[in-house]
Amino acid sequence: MFAFFKAVALGAIFSFVISLVVGHSGSTGGAANVHHYTIEGFKFYWSWVLFLAGGGLAFAILLMLE
User: What is the pLDDT of residue 1?
Assistant: First the structure.
């Protein structure tokens, strides 16, 4: 169960960092589908595809480590 929560955090970090690099260059990343969001004045780039892929990869690795 803890592997899932760790994987969600790692997937969010992965998505944020990769989306920041791709989105800052003005690209959408193709299949990554990076979008620019603004929430309460805080602007950031985000990709649900990268979040799910990074979270799934982190979850698999963490399960293998147990």
Answer: 83
| Mean pLDDT in residue range 37-64 | 96
Paired strand residues for 22: none
Of 27, 35, 65, 64, nearest to 51 (Cα)? Answer: 35
Q: What distance lies between CA 19 and its chain's CA centroid?
A: 7
| Cα pseudo-dihedral 20, 22, 26, 31, rounded to 10 | -120
Mean local confidence (pLDDT), 32-59: 95
pLDDT for 38 equals 95
With contact defined as beta carbons under 8 Å apart, do 15 and 26 qualify? no
CA–CA dist 5, 46 (Å, integer): 19
Residue 57: which of 16, 12, 20 has the closest Cα?
A: 12
